[in-house]
Amino acid sequence: MDDMVIAGVILIGDELLSGRTQDTNLGTIAKFLEPLGVSIGEARIIADNSDTIRDTVKAFSEQFDYVFTTGGIGPTHDDITADCIAAAFDLGISERDDAIEALCERYSLEELNEARRRMARIPDGATLIKNPVSQAPGFQTKNVFTLAGVPQIMRGMLEDIPHRLKGGAEIYSVNVTAEGIGEGDAAKGLAEIERSYPGVSVGSYPFFNDALRGVNFVARGRDEKLLREVKRKLEALVEGLNGLNTA
Amino acid sequence: MDDMVIAGVILIGDELLSGRTQDTNLGTIAKFLEPLGVSIGEARIIADNSDTIRDTVKAFSEQFDYVFTTGGIGPTHDDITADCIAAAFDLGISERDDAIEALCERYSLEELNEARRRMARIPDGATLIKNPVSQAPGFQTKNVFTLAGVPQIMRGMLEDIPHRLKGGAEIYSVNVTAEGIGEGDAAKGLAEIERSYPGVSVGSYPFFNDALRGVNFVARGRDEKLLREVKRKLEALVEGLNGLNTA
């Protein structure tokens, strides 16, 4: 479909794979993109390894309309994302004046040591992405947006993205919650609803405390009117199941 | 290295990519594997799409010592993981008596409708993984462990995994926290420490509130004695930087 715009997300960092840090950037990016009509097709969480970063960026750049990377653009030895992006596109990379200028808003010349200057190394031809939180910029190389890993900074950088995106048709979603019902009770009716409405995807998500408490049904699609109809169908399905209470 | 045992993790579900659900299973699996000497090499978050699931399982099964999948083994139409695992390994799939038995611990025969019976469809030759929370089993196919997506259930299933793993040397980590210091101040010393201790990886993770508050340094490796030495070096590095306070 022409109006489907799909992004890939690459979350970079050993700390995400070791369980030391819980990623929240994927959800933030997804919620940021949804009203712009861009959905996420796949996300990968990869280690601080040059070959892996380079190859993943290259593959995703070809596979998706847009690519977002997070992590690895700080001043330390394990911050290698900028070099990997340059390698992925066979571009040179060097310290850039406009990036140094951004850093000077934060650091005195004395503080701007060799390590911090690394944050001004930008792949040739990339445009900077403003960082309103800690100034060291992100950058856009072709369809790839390279953002910081720290969630507060990453969120700030997203503010400089919307005008760069050609979005698709807006994605809408509706929600129906059914308490005291099991997924298995609703499965047959749910499959029928999804079959009847092409272009609408219907998911069911059980929620638990100590025991099963119920199911959330979520339908997503690009036709708002159709979704309102699907919502009524889901409500009728739940009503028909009420009292079963076999959770 | 012979004692490196690496796992890949595949998190399956549209709801993770839409930002509706925040994954926590990756961190749980990582923390479960660490004391067993297994680290995670890569994780992918993929949509409820048969071809993608099949291809990713196949590739990861070849690339990693172990693979963990989460999600897509419930009773509804979007629960397609079991079929995709069978397809990845060219295996048949059918309803299994031992899996039906497990379901009967939870459901009456009346409740065990066609949708719920789907949860007893298991790839040929797989062994079941016990589900102490809601009974519907996971399963192991070759080096691939297929687990539920609901975090409470996933955690319960992990209890039936350790005896199936041939772990590697235990991975240790040490932590040094430096308040009032920026990453850029420590970068040079940090790189020197990492260079001096092959087999030890050193990461630095700034932490923020409204402003930069400090940096956590984490070193990880399989030689506990070496790590104690690295910890002393990190502490000396931080001590040398104290008072700089250029954060």
Question: What features would you highlight for this structure?
Answer:
homodimer; 247 residues; alpha/beta; Molybdenum Cofactor Biosythetic Enzyme, Chain A; Alpha-Beta Plaits; 2 domains; 6-stranded mixed beta sheet; 3-stranded antiparallel beta sheet; 9 helices; 11 strands; elongated; disordered C terminus
Helix content of chain A: 25-40%
The strand count of chain A comes to 11
The strand order across the widest sheet of chain A is 2-1-3-8-7-6
Weakly predicted, low-confidence segments of chain A: 243-247
Q: What about the largest sheet of chain A?
A: 6 strands, mixed
Give the amount of beta strand of chain A, in percent: 25-35%
Describe the fold and architecture.
2 copies of one chain form a homodimer. Chain A has helices spanning 14-17, 25-33, 50-63, 81-88, 97-104, 114-117, 151-158, 183-196, 224-241, and strands spanning 5-12, 38-46, 66-70, 93-95, 121-123, 127-129, 138-141, 144-147, 172-179, 201-208, 212-221. The first copy, chain A, has 247 residues and is α/β, with parallel strands linked by helices. Chain A folds into 2 domains: 5-164, Molybdenum Cofactor Biosythetic Enzyme, Chain A, CATH 3.40.980.10; 172-241, Alpha-Beta Plaits (2-Layer Sandwich). A 6-stranded mixed sheet of chain A has the order 2-1-3-8-7-6, sandwiched between helices. In chain A, strands 9-11-10 form a 3-stranded antiparallel sheet, with helices on one face. In chain A, strands 4-5 form a two-stranded antiparallel sheet. Chain A starts with a strand and ends in a 6-residue tail after the last helix. The relative contact order of chain A is 0.13. The interface between A and B is large, with 69 and 69 residues.
